[in-house]
Amino acid sequence: MIRFILSDLRRLWAGSLVVVLLVALATALGVCVVLQERALRLGSARAADKFDLVIGAGGSETQLVLSSVFLQPSPLPLMPGEVLGKLAADPRVDWAAPIGFGDSFSGYPIIGTTTTLTQNLSGGLAEGKIFAREGEAVIGAAVKLSLGGEIKPMHGSLEEGGETHTELVYHIAGRLRPTGTAWDRAILVPIQAVWHIHGMEAEEHEEDSGHEHEAASGTDSVEHGHEHEKAGADHDGHGHHGKADPDAALDETLTAGAPGLPAILVKPKTIADAYKLRQEYRSGNTVAVFPGEVLTNLYATLGDAKQILVAVASGAQALVAASLVLVTVIHIGQRRRQIGALRAFGAPRGAIFGIVWMEFFFLVAVGIALGFALGYAAALILSGMFSQTSGVAMPVVFTREDVGLAAVLLAFAAILAALPAVLAYRQSPAQALRA
User: pTM value?
Assistant: First the structure.
Protein backbone atom coordinates (compact mmCIF):
# COMPACT_ATOMS: atom_id res chain seq x y z
CA MET A 1 0.00 0.00 0.00
CA ILE A 2 2.81 2.43 0.89
CA ARG A 3 4.55 1.78 -2.43
CA PHE A 4 1.32 2.40 -4.28
CA ILE A 5 0.79 5.71 -2.45
CA LEU A 6 4.35 6.90 -3.11
CA SER A 7 4.08 5.96 -6.75
CA ASP A 8 0.79 7.79 -7.02
CA LEU A 9 2.27 10.91 -5.42
CA ARG A 10 5.24 10.86 -7.81
CA ARG A 11 2.89 10.58 -10.75
CA LEU A 12 0.71 13.44 -9.49
CA TRP A 13 3.57 15.53 -8.07
CA ALA A 14 2.33 18.89 -9.41
CA GLY A 15 -1.08 18.61 -7.77
CA SER A 16 0.47 17.25 -4.59
CA LEU A 17 2.87 20.19 -4.44
CA VAL A 18 -0.01 22.66 -4.76
CA VAL A 19 -1.87 21.01 -1.88
CA VAL A 20 1.24 21.08 0.35
CA LEU A 21 1.96 24.75 -0.40
CA LEU A 22 -1.62 25.83 0.22
CA VAL A 23 -1.67 24.13 3.61
CA ALA A 24 1.83 25.38 4.48
CA LEU A 25 1.07 29.04 3.74
CA ALA A 26 -2.21 29.00 5.64
CA THR A 27 -0.57 27.32 8.63
CA ALA A 28 2.47 29.63 8.54
CA LEU A 29 0.25 32.71 8.80
CA GLY A 30 -1.35 31.52 12.03
CA VAL A 31 1.91 30.25 13.53
CA CYS A 32 3.73 33.50 12.76
CA VAL A 33 1.02 35.57 14.46
CA VAL A 34 1.14 33.43 17.61
CA LEU A 35 4.95 33.32 17.82
CA GLN A 36 5.43 37.02 17.12
CA GLU A 37 2.88 38.08 19.72
CA ARG A 38 4.55 35.80 22.28
CA ALA A 39 8.00 37.15 21.38
CA LEU A 40 6.78 40.71 21.91
CA ARG A 41 5.33 39.81 25.29
CA LEU A 42 8.45 37.99 26.48
CA GLY A 43 10.84 40.64 25.19
CA SER A 44 8.99 43.58 26.69
CA ALA A 45 8.48 41.77 30.00
CA ARG A 46 12.18 40.94 30.30
CA ALA A 47 13.08 44.53 29.44
CA ALA A 48 10.74 45.85 32.14
CA ASP A 49 12.20 43.44 34.72
CA LYS A 50 15.37 45.55 34.73
CA PHE A 51 13.52 48.38 36.45
CA ASP A 52 11.53 47.96 39.66
CA LEU A 53 9.94 51.38 40.04
CA VAL A 54 9.67 54.46 37.82
CA ILE A 55 8.71 57.85 39.23
CA GLY A 56 7.69 60.82 37.12
CA ALA A 57 5.42 63.82 37.10
CA GLY A 58 1.67 63.39 36.94
CA GLY A 59 0.53 62.28 33.51
CA SER A 60 0.27 59.16 31.39
CA GLU A 61 1.70 56.13 33.17
CA THR A 62 1.99 54.29 29.87
CA GLN A 63 3.98 57.07 28.25
CA LEU A 64 6.23 57.31 31.31
CA VAL A 65 7.14 53.62 30.97
CA LEU A 66 7.53 53.77 27.20
CA SER A 67 9.87 56.75 27.47
CA SER A 68 11.94 55.71 30.49
CA VAL A 69 12.11 51.92 30.01
CA PHE A 70 11.82 51.53 26.24
CA LEU A 71 13.33 54.95 25.40
CA GLN A 72 10.54 55.95 23.03
CA PRO A 73 10.98 59.68 22.35
CA SER A 74 8.19 61.80 23.77
CA PRO A 75 8.04 65.02 25.80
CA LEU A 76 7.18 64.28 29.42
CA PRO A 77 5.98 66.64 32.14
CA LEU A 78 8.61 67.49 34.71
CA MET A 79 8.66 66.94 38.44
CA PRO A 80 10.58 69.09 40.92
CA GLY A 81 14.28 68.27 41.17
CA GLU A 82 14.14 67.92 44.94
CA VAL A 83 12.29 64.60 44.48
CA LEU A 84 15.64 63.07 43.48
CA GLY A 85 17.31 64.32 46.65
CA LYS A 86 14.48 62.97 48.76
CA LEU A 87 14.71 59.55 47.14
CA ALA A 88 18.51 59.43 47.41
CA ALA A 89 18.26 60.01 51.16
CA ASP A 90 15.38 57.55 51.69
CA PRO A 91 16.54 54.48 53.69
CA ARG A 92 14.06 52.32 51.74
CA VAL A 93 15.87 53.06 48.46
CA ASP A 94 18.89 51.04 47.33
CA TRP A 95 19.63 53.53 44.56
CA ALA A 96 17.82 56.17 42.52
CA ALA A 97 19.00 57.48 39.18
CA PRO A 98 17.62 60.42 37.18
CA ILE A 99 17.24 60.18 33.43
CA GLY A 100 16.88 62.94 30.90
CA PHE A 101 16.30 62.63 27.16
CA GLY A 102 15.90 64.76 24.10
CA ASP A 103 19.25 64.48 22.32
CA SER A 104 20.47 61.82 19.90
CA PHE A 105 23.42 60.86 17.72
CA SER A 106 23.28 58.78 14.52
CA GLY A 107 19.84 57.50 15.51
CA TYR A 108 20.92 56.47 19.02
CA PRO A 109 19.19 58.23 21.95
CA ILE A 110 21.45 60.12 24.34
CA ILE A 111 20.36 59.60 27.94
CA GLY A 112 21.57 61.81 30.74
CA THR A 113 22.00 59.91 34.00
CA THR A 114 24.47 59.19 36.79
CA THR A 115 27.23 56.65 37.35
CA THR A 116 24.84 54.77 39.65
CA LEU A 117 22.60 53.64 36.80
CA THR A 118 25.60 52.99 34.56
CA GLN A 119 27.06 50.63 37.16
CA ASN A 120 23.80 48.77 37.83
CA LEU A 121 22.18 48.62 34.41
CA SER A 122 24.08 45.69 32.89
CA GLY A 123 26.15 44.37 35.77
CA GLY A 124 29.34 46.05 34.65
CA LEU A 125 31.15 47.09 31.50
CA ALA A 126 32.19 44.93 28.58
CA GLU A 127 35.13 47.23 27.92
CA GLY A 128 36.48 50.61 28.95
CA LYS A 129 35.41 52.58 32.01
CA ILE A 130 32.47 54.53 33.39
CA PHE A 131 32.36 58.21 32.56
CA ALA A 132 34.19 60.37 35.11
CA ARG A 133 34.06 63.75 33.36
CA GLU A 134 31.35 65.77 31.67
CA GLY A 135 32.83 65.08 28.24
CA GLU A 136 32.77 61.28 28.55
CA ALA A 137 30.07 58.80 27.56
CA VAL A 138 29.26 55.10 27.94
CA ILE A 139 27.54 53.33 25.07
CA GLY A 140 25.18 50.35 25.02
CA ALA A 141 26.21 46.96 23.69
CA ALA A 142 24.38 47.44 20.36
CA VAL A 143 25.75 50.92 19.60
CA LYS A 144 28.02 50.60 16.56
CA LEU A 145 30.68 53.01 17.72
CA SER A 146 34.21 52.50 18.99
CA LEU A 147 35.88 53.49 22.24
CA GLY A 148 37.46 56.91 21.97
CA GLY A 149 35.05 57.97 19.26
CA GLU A 150 33.37 61.37 19.25
CA ILE A 151 29.68 61.97 19.85
CA LYS A 152 28.17 65.30 18.81
CA PRO A 153 24.74 65.52 20.44
CA MET A 154 21.83 66.65 18.33
CA HIS A 155 18.69 68.07 19.84
CA GLY A 156 15.84 65.89 18.60
CA SER A 157 16.56 63.82 15.50
CA LEU A 158 17.81 64.41 11.98
CA GLU A 159 14.41 63.55 10.50
CA GLU A 160 12.79 66.26 12.64
CA GLY A 161 15.33 68.88 11.60
CA GLY A 162 17.32 68.61 14.82
CA GLU A 163 20.00 71.08 15.82
CA THR A 164 23.51 69.87 16.65
CA HIS A 165 24.91 71.16 19.93
CA THR A 166 28.28 72.88 19.65
CA GLU A 167 28.75 73.34 23.39
CA LEU A 168 30.16 69.87 24.04
CA VAL A 169 31.54 66.82 22.24
CA TYR A 170 31.45 63.54 24.16
CA HIS A 171 34.20 60.93 23.91
CA ILE A 172 33.29 57.27 24.39
CA ALA A 173 34.92 55.90 27.54
CA GLY A 174 33.24 52.49 27.89
CA ARG A 175 30.71 50.00 26.61
CA LEU A 176 28.01 48.21 28.65
CA ARG A 177 27.34 44.50 28.61
CA PRO A 178 24.28 43.34 26.65
CA THR A 179 20.99 43.70 28.52
CA GLY A 180 18.46 42.66 25.88
CA THR A 181 16.64 45.97 26.37
CA ALA A 182 16.29 49.26 24.51
CA TRP A 183 19.22 50.52 26.59
CA ASP A 184 21.57 48.46 24.43
CA ARG A 185 21.10 51.17 21.78
CA ALA A 186 21.49 54.08 24.20
CA ILE A 187 24.36 56.48 24.78
CA LEU A 188 24.71 57.30 28.47
CA VAL A 189 26.23 60.63 29.46
CA PRO A 190 26.47 62.56 32.75
CA ILE A 191 23.18 64.28 33.44
CA GLN A 192 24.99 67.36 34.69
CA ALA A 193 26.50 67.72 31.21
CA VAL A 194 22.98 67.55 29.74
CA TRP A 195 21.87 70.24 32.17
CA HIS A 196 24.84 72.45 31.31
CA ILE A 197 24.55 72.30 27.52
CA HIS A 198 20.84 73.06 27.80
CA GLY A 199 21.42 75.98 30.14
CA MET A 200 19.87 74.18 33.09
CA GLU A 201 21.97 74.92 36.16
CA ALA A 202 21.37 73.23 39.49
CA GLU A 203 20.03 75.68 42.03
CA GLU A 204 19.28 75.82 45.71
CA HIS A 205 15.56 76.15 46.47
CA GLU A 206 14.72 78.76 49.10
CA GLU A 207 11.41 78.85 50.87
CA ASP A 208 10.80 82.55 50.21
CA SER A 209 11.88 82.58 46.57
CA GLY A 210 8.49 81.60 45.20
CA HIS A 211 10.19 80.26 42.07
CA GLU A 212 10.97 76.72 40.95
CA HIS A 213 13.30 75.75 38.16
CA GLU A 214 11.62 74.37 35.06
CA ALA A 215 12.99 72.68 31.94
CA ALA A 216 11.42 70.81 29.12
CA SER A 217 12.16 67.16 28.51
CA GLY A 218 13.09 66.94 24.85
CA THR A 219 13.44 70.77 24.39
CA ASP A 220 16.16 73.32 24.99
CA SER A 221 13.92 75.96 26.58
CA VAL A 222 14.26 76.98 30.22
CA GLU A 223 11.55 78.95 31.97
CA HIS A 224 10.95 80.07 35.51
CA GLY A 225 7.51 80.21 37.07
CA HIS A 226 5.44 79.31 40.03
CA GLU A 227 4.70 75.77 38.76
CA HIS A 228 6.25 73.06 36.63
CA GLU A 229 4.46 72.93 33.26
CA LYS A 230 4.36 70.08 30.81
CA ALA A 231 7.47 69.67 28.70
CA GLY A 232 7.22 70.86 25.16
CA ALA A 233 4.16 73.06 25.71
CA ASP A 234 4.37 76.65 24.39
CA HIS A 235 8.12 76.55 23.79
CA ASP A 236 10.02 77.82 20.80
CA GLY A 237 11.77 74.51 20.23
CA HIS A 238 15.38 75.72 20.24
CA GLY A 239 15.88 77.93 23.19
CA HIS A 240 18.63 78.52 25.69
CA HIS A 241 22.02 76.92 25.31
CA GLY A 242 24.56 76.77 28.09
CA LYS A 243 28.23 76.07 28.46
CA ALA A 244 29.90 72.83 29.42
CA ASP A 245 33.48 71.94 30.33
CA PRO A 246 34.37 68.47 28.96
CA ASP A 247 37.14 68.12 31.54
CA ALA A 248 34.96 69.07 34.51
CA ALA A 249 34.77 66.41 37.20
CA LEU A 250 31.39 64.97 38.04
CA ASP A 251 29.50 66.22 41.07
CA GLU A 252 26.58 63.90 41.61
CA THR A 253 25.73 65.20 45.06
CA LEU A 254 23.80 68.20 43.71
CA THR A 255 20.47 66.43 43.96
CA ALA A 256 18.53 68.70 46.30
CA GLY A 257 18.65 71.64 43.89
CA ALA A 258 18.47 69.67 40.66
CA PRO A 259 16.52 71.08 37.73
CA GLY A 260 13.18 69.55 36.77
CA LEU A 261 13.34 65.87 35.87
CA PRO A 262 11.17 63.79 33.52
CA ALA A 263 11.76 60.46 35.28
CA ILE A 264 13.70 58.72 38.04
CA LEU A 265 14.51 55.00 38.07
CA VAL A 266 14.36 53.57 41.58
CA LYS A 267 15.66 50.32 43.04
CA PRO A 268 13.89 49.69 46.37
CA LYS A 269 15.59 47.52 48.96
CA THR A 270 12.64 45.18 49.46
CA ILE A 271 9.32 44.37 47.80
CA ALA A 272 7.49 45.93 50.73
CA ASP A 273 9.53 49.11 50.28
CA ALA A 274 8.62 49.15 46.61
CA TYR A 275 4.90 49.15 47.35
CA LYS A 276 5.28 51.78 50.06
CA LEU A 277 7.25 54.05 47.76
CA ARG A 278 4.76 53.61 44.96
CA GLN A 279 1.90 54.55 47.25
CA GLU A 280 3.77 57.55 48.64
CA TYR A 281 4.71 58.98 45.25
CA ARG A 282 1.36 58.42 43.60
CA SER A 283 -0.09 61.51 45.21
CA GLY A 284 0.53 65.18 44.55
CA ASN A 285 2.67 66.17 41.57
CA THR A 286 4.30 62.78 41.01
CA VAL A 287 3.27 59.32 39.84
CA ALA A 288 5.03 56.04 40.61
CA VAL A 289 4.49 52.90 38.55
CA PHE A 290 5.65 49.33 38.31
CA PRO A 291 6.54 48.84 34.62
CA GLY A 292 5.15 45.31 34.71
CA GLU A 293 1.69 46.54 35.71
CA VAL A 294 1.64 49.06 32.87
CA LEU A 295 2.66 46.35 30.42
CA THR A 296 -0.23 44.20 31.62
CA ASN A 297 -2.63 46.87 30.38
CA LEU A 298 -0.78 47.05 27.09
CA TYR A 299 -0.96 43.28 26.78
CA ALA A 300 -4.73 43.48 27.09
CA THR A 301 -4.84 45.74 24.05
CA LEU A 302 -2.30 43.56 22.31
CA GLY A 303 -4.47 40.54 23.07
CA ASP A 304 -7.39 42.13 21.24
CA ALA A 305 -5.19 42.74 18.22
CA LYS A 306 -3.97 39.14 18.42
CA GLN A 307 -7.54 37.85 18.37
CA ILE A 308 -8.24 39.82 15.22
CA LEU A 309 -5.10 38.50 13.50
CA VAL A 310 -5.84 34.95 14.61
CA ALA A 311 -9.37 35.30 13.25
CA VAL A 312 -7.95 36.45 9.91
CA ALA A 313 -5.52 33.51 9.89
CA SER A 314 -8.33 31.10 10.78
CA GLY A 315 -10.44 32.48 7.96
CA ALA A 316 -7.57 31.91 5.54
CA GLN A 317 -7.18 28.36 6.80
CA ALA A 318 -10.91 27.73 6.39
CA LEU A 319 -10.77 28.95 2.78
CA VAL A 320 -7.78 26.71 2.14
CA ALA A 321 -9.64 23.75 3.67
CA ALA A 322 -12.67 24.42 1.46
CA SER A 323 -10.50 24.67 -1.65
CA LEU A 324 -8.74 21.43 -0.71
CA VAL A 325 -12.08 19.64 -0.38
CA LEU A 326 -13.08 20.90 -3.81
CA VAL A 327 -9.78 19.86 -5.35
CA THR A 328 -9.89 16.40 -3.80
CA VAL A 329 -13.49 15.78 -4.89
CA ILE A 330 -12.53 16.69 -8.44
CA HIS A 331 -9.41 14.56 -8.10
CA ILE A 332 -11.41 11.54 -6.95
CA GLY A 333 -13.77 12.00 -9.88
CA GLN A 334 -10.80 11.95 -12.27
CA ARG A 335 -9.47 8.74 -10.67
CA ARG A 336 -12.71 6.79 -10.83
CA ARG A 337 -11.37 4.40 -13.47
CA GLN A 338 -8.22 3.72 -11.43
CA ILE A 339 -10.29 3.04 -8.32
CA GLY A 340 -12.63 0.82 -10.32
CA ALA A 341 -9.70 -1.17 -11.67
CA LEU A 342 -8.34 -1.71 -8.17
CA ARG A 343 -11.74 -2.94 -7.03
CA ALA A 344 -12.02 -5.22 -10.09
CA PHE A 345 -8.66 -6.81 -9.25
CA GLY A 346 -9.96 -7.70 -5.81
CA ALA A 347 -8.95 -4.73 -3.68
CA PRO A 348 -11.40 -4.46 -0.74
CA ARG A 349 -13.22 -1.25 0.01
CA GLY A 350 -11.23 -0.80 3.22
CA ALA A 351 -7.98 -0.80 1.26
CA ILE A 352 -9.31 1.83 -1.15
CA PHE A 353 -10.42 3.96 1.78
CA GLY A 354 -6.99 3.58 3.43
CA ILE A 355 -5.06 4.47 0.27
CA VAL A 356 -7.03 7.64 -0.42
CA TRP A 357 -7.10 8.69 3.24
CA MET A 358 -3.38 8.12 3.83
CA GLU A 359 -2.43 9.89 0.61
CA PHE A 360 -4.43 13.01 1.40
CA PHE A 361 -3.54 13.03 5.11
CA PHE A 362 0.15 12.69 4.24
CA LEU A 363 0.01 15.75 1.98
CA VAL A 364 -1.81 17.86 4.58
CA ALA A 365 0.52 16.72 7.40
CA VAL A 366 3.58 17.65 5.33
CA GLY A 367 1.98 21.04 4.64
CA ILE A 368 1.34 21.60 8.35
CA ALA A 369 4.95 20.71 9.25
CA LEU A 370 6.26 22.99 6.51
CA GLY A 371 3.88 25.72 7.70
CA PHE A 372 5.27 25.54 11.23
CA ALA A 373 8.79 25.85 9.84
CA LEU A 374 7.85 28.80 7.61
CA GLY A 375 5.96 30.52 10.45
CA TYR A 376 8.94 30.11 12.77
CA ALA A 377 11.32 31.50 10.15
CA ALA A 378 9.02 34.47 9.47
CA ALA A 379 8.72 35.21 13.21
CA LEU A 380 12.52 35.07 13.55
CA ILE A 381 12.93 37.57 10.72
CA LEU A 382 10.30 39.95 12.11
CA SER A 383 11.70 39.71 15.65
CA GLY A 384 15.18 40.42 14.34
CA MET A 385 13.93 43.50 12.53
CA PHE A 386 12.08 44.76 15.62
CA SER A 387 15.06 44.04 17.86
CA GLN A 388 17.40 45.91 15.57
CA THR A 389 15.26 49.04 15.65
CA SER A 390 14.14 48.92 19.29
CA GLY A 391 17.06 47.14 20.96
CA VAL A 392 14.66 44.85 22.83
CA ALA A 393 15.52 41.15 22.43
CA MET A 394 12.44 39.22 21.31
CA PRO A 395 12.83 35.45 21.78
CA VAL A 396 10.89 33.27 19.36
CA VAL A 397 10.06 30.02 21.14
CA PHE A 398 7.57 27.16 20.88
CA THR A 399 5.55 26.11 23.93
CA ARG A 400 3.10 23.35 24.84
CA GLU A 401 0.35 25.55 23.46
CA ASP A 402 1.88 25.14 20.00
CA VAL A 403 1.93 21.35 20.41
CA GLY A 404 -1.80 21.53 21.07
CA LEU A 405 -2.27 23.68 17.96
CA ALA A 406 -0.39 21.11 15.85
CA ALA A 407 -2.52 18.31 17.29
CA VAL A 408 -5.72 20.18 16.47
CA LEU A 409 -4.57 20.83 12.91
CA LEU A 410 -3.62 17.17 12.41
CA ALA A 411 -6.97 16.04 13.81
CA PHE A 412 -8.73 18.39 11.41
CA ALA A 413 -6.57 17.02 8.57
CA ALA A 414 -7.59 13.47 9.51
CA ILE A 415 -11.27 14.44 9.34
CA LEU A 416 -10.76 16.35 6.10
CA ALA A 417 -8.96 13.40 4.51
CA ALA A 418 -11.90 11.15 5.32
CA LEU A 419 -14.18 12.99 2.89
CA PRO A 420 -12.47 11.93 -0.36
CA ALA A 421 -11.78 8.52 1.17
CA VAL A 422 -15.51 7.99 1.79
CA LEU A 423 -16.30 9.04 -1.78
CA ALA A 424 -13.82 6.50 -3.09
CA TYR A 425 -15.10 3.86 -0.69
CA ARG A 426 -18.69 4.20 -1.93
CA GLN A 427 -17.87 3.82 -5.62
CA SER A 428 -18.82 0.48 -7.14
CA PRO A 429 -16.36 -1.18 -9.59
CA ALA A 430 -18.91 -1.41 -12.40
CA GLN A 431 -19.86 2.26 -12.26
CA ALA A 432 -16.23 3.33 -11.98
CA LEU A 433 -15.16 1.30 -15.04
CA ARG A 434 -18.07 2.60 -17.13
CA ALA A 435 -17.15 6.21 -16.29
Answer: 0.72
